[in-house]
Amino acid sequence: MSEQHTVTAFDEDINRLRGLVAEMGGRVETALEEAMDALVHQNLAKAKKVVLDDHKVDALEAEVEKLVVETIALRAPMADDLREVIAALKIVGVVERIGDYAKNIAKRVPKIGDHRTIEPISLLPAMAQIAGEMVADALNAFAARNAMLAEAVIERDAVVDSFYNSIFRTLVTYMVENPKTISECAHLLFVAKNIERIGDHATNVAEMVYYAATGNYLPERDRSATENE
Q1: How many domains does the chain have?
Q2: Which of 159, 154, 130, 164 is nearest to 220 (CA)?
Q3: What tens digit of pLDDT does each residue of 38-54 get?
């Protein structure tokens, strides 16, 4: 009876962990969407809300950390179960960083100002959408212990990198040809870099999920091709 009670209690802890991770993920996905919408439409109120709401993600991370410590101390999970608990702890740290990148994008909105000489290039929202989908799929893979979905997320990172390289070249060219736009373009370059880092972090989450689900590490990624473009 005692062993059955322990198993049931552990299952409840795992389900709660998954729920907290999913809630964190949902908040950072929304933050990225709203930050990009604020950028495109110059919505200062929405940008400010993204910045102010970031503390909710931090609070969820702290709650997960506390639950993980309690679960390990009280349930002593082994093998697959322990990998999942540790993965949850690592994942929320990465998700918190993704939330910070979304906040950083929102902080750029008022700095670009109302009198823009160029609109955010169309590649930025498309790039952000792919990065956001990667985050969502990586967290869905964690919830479902789906190694194949995690691998698919990792493969899409090259698409985000290609977007970044295209945006970088476009904005640098624009700055050279229109020196008055240097400040605006610099802010947009920072936005693009934040999105690129979100894609990298989604990939990191997917790698953790793959290990938690299979017990195996994926081969080291070769990023030299995209970095040298």
Answers
A1: 1
A2: 154
A3: 999 999 999 999 999 99
